[in-house]
Amino acid sequence: MCKMKKTIYLLVSVIALFSCKKESNIPSSTLPNPTNSITCVDNPNINFTSIGTPIGKFGECIKDIDGNTYKTVTIGTQTWMAENLKVSKYNDGTPIPNVTDSLQWPKLTTGAWCNYKNNASNNAKFGKLYNWFAINSTSNGNKNVCPSGWHAPSADEWTVLFNNLGGKSVAGGKMKEVGTKSWDSINKDANNLSLFTGIPGGARFLNGNDYFIGNFSYWWISTESNTSYAWGRCLQDSLGQAINFYLDKRIGVSIRCLKD
Q1: Would 241 be classed as within a structural domain?
Q2: Does 1 fall in a domain?
Q3: What is the reported pTM?
C-alpha cells in the first residue's frame, strides 16, 4: 500500500484494510458510436501538457455508452485512456448502481459507483469511484465497464506500462499531471512525459467517507489478491514512483481502461 505521509493517512488505511476480460460480444448497434472513435477536444478541467519531450502520443478520443468522451494516449505498444472512467452503465447499457448511502456501500458484493463526496461536480475532472466488483466478470454478470474494444487492465499489463516508462521507481512522475491544478502542492517529480495524465481522484472507504482527493491516484486492476482483496496501482503527491497496492474489494477507486 501507499506509504502514508500523515497520521490521517495511517488511520484511514487501517479502516480500509481491516473493515475493509474482455467484454461480452454485444451488437454494435447498441452503442452510440460503433467505433467509439471521435474527434478529440481537451477536457478543460485537466492539464494534458508535459515538461519535456513526451514519450506518449495522443490519439483519437473515444466515447463510452453514456456519451462521455476521453482522450487516449499510446505508450509503447499500449493505448490507454488519458482520463479516469466516468461511465454509469456497462457497455451493453445495463446500469451500474449509484450507491450514495455510507452504510450500504460496505455491504455490497456487486458492482457500484459513486462520486467523490457524492458531489457530481467531481465527475468531470476525476471521474467516478467504483468498487472492484464493477470490473470483475464473475460479480458483474460478465459485463464490461469499459467502452467497446477496451478493458480493465491486468497486473501484467500495468507492468508493461511501468517498464515502458523506465520502471516503477520513476514511472510515477512520468504519469502524473503536471502542476497543482489537481494535485497537492507537493506533486513530487511530476513531468507527465507519458501523457498518461494521472490525477488524484481519492477513494471511498468502508466507513462511507471519502479521502485523499488531491493526494492519491488509485486505480483498480482486474487481478485479485484473494477472496476479499484485489490489486490496484497508485500514484502519490509526495512520491515520484508508481506503487502496487491491494485494498478490500468494497472500496471505491478510479478506473483507467486499456485498448484491446
Answers
A1: yes
A2: no
A3: 0.87
